[in-house]
């Protein structure tokens, strides 16, 4: 199995994901929040490319039945129910609900990976479980760093490198992207929070008052929940019966 | 001063280079060969986007006056005088000549950086001199990894990280891209050749019989020659009068 890490979505060649199992990594914060939402009991999460698409879909599905969530410049979008902080996705807010989510990078990147055979969302919180899900797909793997507005984000590569390290330990061959991601993860392995604090987006979020979000997003393997794409919606993957407990 | 490293050319936002000093890094092998060509006495090197453009330009300028060079899939192009190995750019082959060069990645990337105020070519061979030239431009800096057919290449990031390390030591602020490039350079600092051998393109070139090219390209700071773009041609930058000797 070949494990590839795509450093920015624009690096993704057209149709390159056909036949591959894909994970989208947006550590700060779409991946982290989507995992938190499913863990808090959300039924599913529909990723959308834009605020307009999210708003329109909410109307189509019935505004009262769904939770609109997402951010622009890190802040909750006007008229939306929730922003993009994992702490907002409480059971009280999301249990049993369909979420329609519009974020600047993570949900847009998810739109690009639809030609793949298996697409999931990964972050530091669920890295080991995501690696397991990718390995079980039985195909080559691409881990796509969502980045920020087309540019590279340090924390996404640390998350991707963590997943790539698990796959490499299981015998996967690494592309150049996977090698550098693993090297970066090694550098921050003892304390991933340092990477989140060092990166530009982390510093921006701290400035907005989201320091706690970084601390939460840096916690390794706190959940076995892997959101997977099924007919345009992210749902919780059934847990692997053979997996060891994570927490 | 902000030092940015662009990990793949596609990461480059439109017009993002206006007002910035730019270095294009294609360690294996366009940057390395271009530096070797100017060191061997070539008058100038015209980078082109395609074999067709190079051939046409050679006819316009007079085929007998120019040296056509470049590669496809690592091999010399049919009908061209030279390929893309630094060992081909001997004084006998290039002294006093105008070279028209078509490579798959390096010369194509040079076509994208033209809106910048200052554009040069850098590699491991001239990293310190290139860092000095970038710093003297007095603007923000972008180091662009050429990669391979749109994908990321390990060895380019090591070269970019080496240059970014020099600039960072001189007080430049690092973007996320510059941070990861420096981390990667640190990993391979003791022996950059290891990075060239670990990368996919290096392995491909070794398979073609270009093992010596990797060894040559991995030599740090063996020259102070910095090719700079002037009216579409790469020429040797006048050496910095204040610079210490490098070799």
Q: What would CATH call the class of chain A?
A: Alpha Beta
Uncertain spans of chain A: none
Strand order of the largest sheet of chain A: 7-2-8-1-9
Q: What's the order of the H and E elements of chain A? A: EEHEHEEHEHEHEHEHHHHEE
What's the multimeric state? Answer: homodimer
**Number of discrete helical segments of chain A:** 10
Strand content of chain A: 15-25%
Query: Which pair of protein chains has the largest interface, and what are the residue counts?
Result: A-B, 23 and 23 residues
**Large-scale geometry of chain A:** globular
Structural class of chain A: alpha/beta
Please compute the radius of gyration of chain A using only Cα atoms: 16 Å
Q: In total, how many beta strands of chain A?
A: 11
How would you characterize the largest beta sheet of chain A? Answer: 5 strands, parallel
- Tally of individual domains of chain A: 1
């Amino acid at each position: 199995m070949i494990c590839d890490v795509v450093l920015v979505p624009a690096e993704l060649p057209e149709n390159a994901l056909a036949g591959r199992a894909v994970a989208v990594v947006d550590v700060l914060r779409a991946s982290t929040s989507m995992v938190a939402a499913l863990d808090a009991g959300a039924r599913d999460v529909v990723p959308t490319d834009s605020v307009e698409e999210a708003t329109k879909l909410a109307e189509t599905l019935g505004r009262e039945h769904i939770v609109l969530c997402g951010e622009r410049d890190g802040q909750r979008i006007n008229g939306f129910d929730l922003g993009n902080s994992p702490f907002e996705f409480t059971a009280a807010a999301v249990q049993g609900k369909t979420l329609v989510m519009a974020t600047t990078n993570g949900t847009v990147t998810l739109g690009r990976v639809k030609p793949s055979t298996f697409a999931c969302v990964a972050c530091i919180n669920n890295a080991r479980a995501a690696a397991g899900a990718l390995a079980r797909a039985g195909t080559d793997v691409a881990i796509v760093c969502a980045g920020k507005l087309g540019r590279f984000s340090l924390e996404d590569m640390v998350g991707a490198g963590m997943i790539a390290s698990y796959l490499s330990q299981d015998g996967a061959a690494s592309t150049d992207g996977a090698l550098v991601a693993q090297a970066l993860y090694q550098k921050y392995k003892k304390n991933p929070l340092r990477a989140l604090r060092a990166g530009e987006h982390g510093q921006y979020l701290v400035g907005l008052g989201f320091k706690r979000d970084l601390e939460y997003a840096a916690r390794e393997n706190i959940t076995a929940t892997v959101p997977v794409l099924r007919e345009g919606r992210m749902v919780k993957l059934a847990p692997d019966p053979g997996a060891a407990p994570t927490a």
